[in-house]
Amino acid sequence: MTRAEEIIRQRIRDRGRITFAEFMELALYGPGGYYTSRTPIGRRGDYYTSPSAHPMFGALLALQLEQLWRLLDAPSRFVVVEPGAGDGRLALDVLAYARRLDAAFARALEYVAVDRFPRPGPGGPAANFSGGPGGPAARISWLRGECTPLRELTGCVLSNELVDSMPVHRVAMTGGRLRELYVTLADGSLAEEAGEPSTPEIAEMLGSQGVRLEEGWQAEVGLGARRWMEGVAASLRRGYVLTIDYGDPAERLYTEARKAGTVMSYYQHTPQADVLARVGLQDMTAHVNFTTLVQAGRKRGLEPVALMDQGSFLRNLGAGLFIDRQRREPLPQAETQANLMAMRDLVKPGGLGAFRVLLQAKDAPVAGLACVDESPSDQEAWRRRLESLPVPMLTPEHLDLLAARYPHQAGTQERW
Ligand SMILES: C[S@@+](CC[C@H](N)C(=O)[O-])C[C@H]1O[C@@H](n2cnc3c(N)ncnc32)[C@H](O)[C@@H]1O
């Protein structure tokens, strides 16, 4: 039995059943928990994320951040806070590409990577291949924490696949009543048990979003995500919040198609239906309720600007142009294929392109945003700019999707 499971069983024996949110908190972030004790992303992990797939993700975000900096009148300090920064891959890619952009922007950019369990990877602070003491790695300030510990920020709070990993409460509609699903011990095994909701906030949140659960439906309620977004909004004086994750607004989340809820586990790149199994060894996530993030932001002066899919977001920023240019780069065929495969995955509707991007703004201009693709004349200027910039290329620190999926084509036998 894993240490995380032992701790959970002890907690239940001592205090009785626990909420699913408490179970998820302990299984992911408690002693021996999934994120406490491993590096989950990449070839040897359980899944890959956009930053680990290809540096085009970070490069296009750097371009968008540069435009946000300009919209704020090019302040001398532009702080990017990335909660859930993991191994810092995105931070490194953004900073590396920012060096190709406006020099005043690159100087103004301060990058703060925050994580509950920071894991600066091989590209982290000690590395020299990222450009030595003045290189991108040295420009990241790492903080350990679960909220945004800074105040009066001018800049942007940027996160990728953070909110889906926050603990959620689980509920079910049974006999016409809203019940909460707890985790308990039955016949010596972890099991689910329905009971009265642990807090009135659950029904309040569902009610405020106009959610009506039908008989027999199960669902998640992300109270932690709401608190997190309130903290993010409070940390900003002026600026933007970019939240990238999978999920939907409430009206598309609580539907017949998802009547069993969206909590899911991943183990060695395979989805697992039994979320109470392999405690601490398998990842656990739930679709993000973007309505919760919008509501929580609004309470603290953060207005929603756009909610779009990642494919459209990256295409508006110029992904198509980088992909076209990549095809013409004089590279060995395997390298071209590896780059193209990962770049296309970032925008593919059946791949990472199906993720959603929520952009919110607080006391900050939003007209002409490149990612929202508003005016054709701006698009033309943006396109010309991109033509003059280098195409981002896979590095050895990124996941080689081609090698992972088609080892015979990429000339390697390694699999994840
Ligand atoms: C799914 S991983 C994503 C890592 C990275 N953003 C990426 O895209 O590769 C989620 C990360 O968020 C961290 N995390 C979870 N809750 C957090 C919180 N409230 N504040 C900061 N980090 C958190 C976890 O430790 C983990 O490193």
Radius of gyration: 22 Å
| Number of separate strands | 17
> Termini, distance in Å?
25 Å
Biggest sheet overview: 7 strands, mixed
Looking at CATH, which topology would you report?
Rossmann fold
Bound ligands, each once: S-adenosylmethionine
Describe this structure as you would to a colleague:
This protein has 416 residues and is an alpha/beta fold. The chain has one domain: Rossmann fold (3-Layer(aba) Sandwich). It is 36% helix and 22% strand. The protein contains 16 helices and 17 strands. The chain has helices at 3-15, 20-29, 50-53, 56-71, 89-98, 103-108, 201-208, 223-235, 250-253, 290-299, 310-317, 319-328, 333-347, 376-387, 401-405, 407-410; strands at 18-19, 78-83, 109-115, 140-144, 153-160, 169-174, 177-186, 189-195, 218-221, 236-245, 247-248, 264-267, 270-272, 283-285, 288-289, 303-309, 356-362. The strands form 4 sheets. The protein has a 7-stranded mixed β-sheet with strand order 4-3-2-5-10-17-16, sandwiched between helices. Strands 1, 6, 7, 8 and 9 form a 5-stranded antiparallel β-sheet that branches. The chain has a 3-stranded antiparallel β-sheet with strand order 13-12-14. Helix 12 runs antiparallel to helix 13. The longest helix is centred in the first third of the chain and has 16 residues, at 56-71. The radius of gyration is 22 Å and the shape is globular. 46% of the residues are buried. The structure holds S-adenosylmethionine. S-adenosylmethionine binds next to helix 3 and strand 3.
Quick recap:
The chain is α/β, with parallel strands linked by helices. Helix content is 36%, strand content 22%.
